Amino acid sequence: MSKAAVTRLQQSVAAADRDGVETWMALGSRIFEGGPQRPRQLKEMPSSAGDLLDPAQSHGDVLVQVTAPNERAVLEASERVVRKAVGWRVRWQLDGFRAENRAEAGKGLGRNPFHFTEGFGNPGTEREVTDRAIVRSGQGEPDWAVGGSYQVVRIVRFATELWDKDSVREQERIMGRRRDGRWLDGTPSGEQPNFAADPAGRVTPLDAHVRMAAPDRRNSPPLVRRSYSYDRGDGDKGLIFSCFQRDLEQGFEAVQSRLEGEAMAKYILTTGGGYFFVPPPGDAWIDALFRN
Ligand code: HEM
Q: What is the CATH number of domain 43-59+92-280?
């Protein structure tokens, strides 16, 4: 990968950033081949148990994410990036949306294709978001990477027909929350449930998603989730799961391995995505990366 090519892409991505459009690029591990400056934990996303990763929508040299308040603005901005990024080729692309997108108590919420509201487990303040998601100095990462973030993207197909055959009550036991976010023991969505009072999982089953993802209610998993729904219109719909963390092993990888065997597993199939690293703001990182 040449410095000129990376600079050109960075400039085309930055130029698209206007009128409510927010864009960023994140680097895949291949960009660092032969170079010493790779973020310590960055590698090609491994296949987790049950995954069926399609090479045609997995990995890639860089990830470009384009977000905007409406579809048209996203499409126009994406086209601008692709047109300007001469020498780059689109490997895979997927349109996402956030149904009932809103913010409450500092948290971005949205409804996924399983009819559940997501976002409650995220931090509600800028400080906590930074604490979980942004690389700091002293973490053993290259200097240029301080201020950046590991981004994990997973394209997760949902068996919505199978899911919709279950009662709402059964779905809520699989997820471990009510559709509106309330906990199954009646605790309001913004407070902590008392799992300790339910050791056998009679109220919240032990294999419920939230219980396996975050069993220790005093130490939240150090990641910030921000996912989008997708619908290809041919029955293939699901979630473009995305999360950010400053430590890939303690963040995504720890939670993902805990989720093995969760009750939701038979309704989902991960078919693509990848591991990426979002560089810090600005473009000073490009010089640092190609200094050898
Ligand atoms: C792909 C299918 C998935 C669905 C439908 C899903 C859905 C949900 C829902 C509805 C919640 C509860 C509300 C909230 O806190 O946002 C939740 C929480 C959570 N999910 Fe997922 N999720 C999925 C995948 C994942 C994956 C792949 C991870 C990470 C490896 C993950 C990690 C978490 C975490 C950490 C929480 C917060 C737990 C807490 O602090 O209470 N989820 N998810």
A: 3.30.70
